[in-house]
Amino acid sequence: MAIALALIVAMLVTGGVWLLLRPRSWSVVLGLTMLGYAVNFFILLAGRIGSRQPPLALEGAGALADPLPQALVLTAIVIGLGMTAFLVALALRGVAARGADTDDADRIGEGPVDDDDADMAA
Amino acid sequence: MSLLPVLPILLPFGAATIMLLLGPGRLATQRVLALGAGLGGLMVAAALLAGADAGVISAYRLGDWPAPYGIVMVVDRLAAMMLMLVAVLALGALLMAMGGSDAERPDGRGRHFHALFQLQLAGLAGAFLTGDLFNLFVFFEILLLASYALMMHGPAPAEAARVRAGLIYVVLNLVGSSLFLLALALTYASLGTLNLADVARLLAVLPADDVAMARTAMALMAAVFLLKAAVLPMSLWLPQVYARAPAAAAALFVILTKVGIIMLLRLAVTGWGDSIATAGLLQPWLPVLALGTITLGTIGAFAARRLAEVAAWLVLVSSGTLLFALGFLTPRGTAALLYYLPQSTLFCAALFLLAGHVAARRGALGDRLGRGPAASGRRWLLPAWGVAAVGLAGLPPLAGFLGKLMMLQAVGTGGWQGPWWGVLLLSSLGVLLVLSRATGPLFWQANEVPLDNRAALAGVAGVAPQMGLWLLLAAGVAMTVWAAPMSGFAGRTAEQLFERRAYQAAVLGDVPVQRERRP
């Protein structure tokens, strides 16, 4: 069980990192989302595996699940959603400003300096 | 409990909420609110500073929950000092944002500039005050999200380059946030707490089984703070982002690297203590990386083509200098760090504002370090430039020199003295060369502004932006004039920081809550 869960986190992280390193902003957004899933899952696992009890101190109930990781994960999900929304908006603005999805792989020679010159001409 | 410790967060947060409720387009109201909140923040910070300097660590428990369970806001000397610095910096940056005509003023380009600015202040205050690591993450996200948006308020022509720099900045910080969350999960899994004082207490008595996990968690967290501080392998994102942001926002961003440094200081000194789980996490390599960061920043400043880029590279030099002093984790080194930090922040921020002033006065040439018309209005810009340059290069008589001297004394006669003296003095010389080289093209050439650029010149017209610049410079110079009380305060702050028991007692109470160990 523990190994399977660890493998799921590992796979999500691997996919996330690979997508992050792609030169297109859309892949990067997807990669960050995937990384976010991995991290959220990981936080949930920090509250120990296999506790299926509710996180409530009910009378008569024996064990109870740790409520804190669940609260943390909720917060992290909300923040992650907001960040992803902002990132998508920013990437779209980049597309609008450049007329193409960010593809820095073939633009290495064009540093910010060239943009400065373009600004001056404009 | 007095509400005072949470006021630095509530005040800007409330101001931002009112601004958003009022709706966009009420710039005059927004400005009055922003200035009011800024002055209020200054007064609250002064009150907190006066209270904290009496040596009492006051903890505010949200909802009155006992400490390891609820969230605590802790005001000690370090937090109060940083709040004061944020308040002064914020006033300077706000004044800069308020000048000029409709088209050019930064707060006129976006409808919510002031609300975002206040939210960033709330995030900064929260990060310095909170005594809970997860809460720190939340405040980090608040201030980062505000900074992402503030960064986009630059002039329209450079839009494409700014968006690209912004994307890199956002993606990098989101990866940092993911690492931060992983570190928090590991901390919770190994220690069962996220309260810094509780972490410190439990790290000291950690069973050998949990050492590996706790060590991993702490190393990850340190890496996240070092990313914010832009230390060497993770520093190349900073210059292009800061140089692309509008001057008023960039001036405020200078403190963002300092947030990373102060948080690392707090984590390493208050949290780690002498625990075996964290022994040797910073000690051998942080000073080396810090020296590398100083070198990189100095070389970068030579290669910079715009004044704002020079300022951005100098932020790296400042970061490296502070991290070097931090790397030794001694009270004397920390005292030197705490004396050096405020004036370094103020002069770096002043240089960003100065770059904004110069850019608005040279038309299409902007703040490029090339031949062209000198900045008009240099009668008052040139003295400001002189003060900022002397402060940044760390020349006597200004406080940067005293701070570096304190650091050199704190390093003592260990093996690091040779490289430290060499790198620091050469870097000072390099900064001085860069800044004096820039003086000619920026200020001493023919004072002609082409006619078609009169509109741009209006960008920083009015008294407010000049007041902002001079406020930061005056605060930096005040660090020199009152050097004895300031360095005394820095010493007391460092002492307090190293008294870990007092911090734990203030946050957790004298008898910490006992908990069962989890399976």
From TrEMBL, chain A:
The chain crosses the membrane at residues 6-21, 28-51, 71-92. The keyword Transmembrane helix applies. It is found in: Cell membrane. It is a multi-pass membrane protein. Residues 98-122 are annotated as: Disordered. The keyword Chloroplast does not apply. InterPro entries: CPA3_antiporter_subunitC, NUOK/Mnh_C1-like. Pfam families: Oxidored_q2. Residues 112-122 have a biased composition (Acidic residues). Its main location: membrane. Keywords: Cell membrane, Membrane, Transmembrane, Transmembrane helix. One of its GO terms (cellular component) is plasma membrane. It comes from the Bacteria. Belongs to the CPA3 antiporters (TC 2.A.63) subunit C family. This is Multicomponent K+:H+ antiporter subunit C. It comes from Polymorphobacter multimanifer.
TrEMBL record, chain B:
Pfam families: Proton_antipo_M. The keyword Signal does not apply. InterPro entries: CPA3_Na-H_Antiporter_D, NADH_UbQ_OxRdtase, ND/Mrp_TM. One of its GO terms (molecular function) is NADH dehydrogenase (ubiquinone) activity. Signal peptide: none annotated. It is found in: Cell membrane; Membrane. It is a multi-pass membrane protein. GO terms for cellular component: plasma membrane. Keywords: Cell membrane, Membrane, Transmembrane, Transmembrane helix. GO terms for biological process: ATP synthesis coupled electron transport. The chain crosses the membrane at residues 6-25, 32-58, 78-100, 166-191, 211-231, 243-265, 285-304, 311-331, 337-359, 380-400, 420-444, 456-484. Residues 131-424 form the NADH:quinone oxidoreductase/Mrp antiporter transmembrane domain. Belongs to the CPA3 antiporters (TC 2.A.63) subunit D family. PANTHER family: NA(+)_H(+) ANTIPORTER SUBUNIT D1, NADH DEHYDROGENASE. NCBIfam families: PRK12666.1 (NF009309). This is Multicomponent K+:H+ antiporter subunit D. It comes from Polymorphobacter multimanifer. The lineage of its organism: Bacteria, Pseudomonadati, Pseudomonadota, Alphaproteobacteria, Sphingomonadales.
